[in-house]
User: What shape does this take?
Amino acid sequence: MYIKKGYFGQYGGRFVPETLMPALKELERAFLRVKFDKEFLDEFESLLKDYVGRPTPLYFAGRLTEYLSGAKIYLKREDLAHTGAHKINNALGQALLAKRVMKKERIIAETGAGQHGVATATGAALVGLACDIYMGTEDIRRQQLNVFRMNLLGAKVIPVDTGSKTLKDAINESLRDWTKNVRTTHYVLGTVFGPHPYPLLVRFFQSVIGKEAKKQILKKEGRLPSLLIACVGGGSNSIGLFSEFLDDNDVQMTGVEAGGKGIETGLHAARFASGNKGVFQGCLSYVLENDDGNILKTHSVSAGLDYASVGPEHAYLRDTGRVKYTHVTDDEALEAFELLSSLEGIIPALESAHAVAEAIKVAPKMSKDSIIIVNLSGRGDKDVQEVARIKGISI
Assistant: This one.
């Protein structure tokens, strides 16, 4: 897959100021060391089992399947992991890496929907590190519950009131902080994006999702699934699921971006629908930018998908055709949010609702012996207040 170190095909790389290069090389050395360090991996796996609650269930959504009258739909329940989302897998791994291996005193992170911030604050509390979280003020408005949770966990949430006041602006501030405090601080990047080695590092910690899903579906059905579906913001939950199945050529995969109010309106975050190749926040990938190379404002009802670029491995998988990428609008995601809640008693995160919406579209067109696994990347408690506001309901 790789033409040279740190690249997926032509995508990836390490485009950062010189001041960050030593930190990235230190992180790369630490990552390569722990990948094969039995003591580290045993501790990590023990925490995944006893602290995070893994393996998360693979649940057959019987009523949704009956309602759609097509393929059998299974949900990989990352929403049941500790802190309520898949983000804890990576955050815990990086917190351990920072404390045990790199001997850092402090970790920082950025967050959009708040789930990565909560997960990082949790990891910091567990291992005993100081923790600061950067968050756009628009996302703070949408995710007040998660801001309170981060504060309870001992982290300081630092508002970012520049640009679109969302995730990309929070990442910019995190990179500035890291540049100034690189000797004592580790930056827990939350997705398979950014300069090398982050896309590989985050995939490593999230690959547990796909490994578990493969074992579970083989036990339940005795065969591999026909289709995997996952939402794609930066792309960590989807890479976590897809990575274990990439060599299984009969398994199709679909990544779902945020179509927002529709591609034609320009109010979306569908990088593959109208983006270009470009360098952004440390790596080469697809990015939403204008003809002058300025980053466009993005929009999504889901704070976690509201991002101008996408992980470089996704760009590679898209170009090679191994993974199909599509988009779902805000309205379609909101309909899926309500449908899954009412049929299965599961309130999904708005991010995950995009993946559910795609399953709702394609399942009726598939045969009844087909199997779809939808990655339910997080739970929707954090989004209930925002959905009520959109519907004009005061709670």
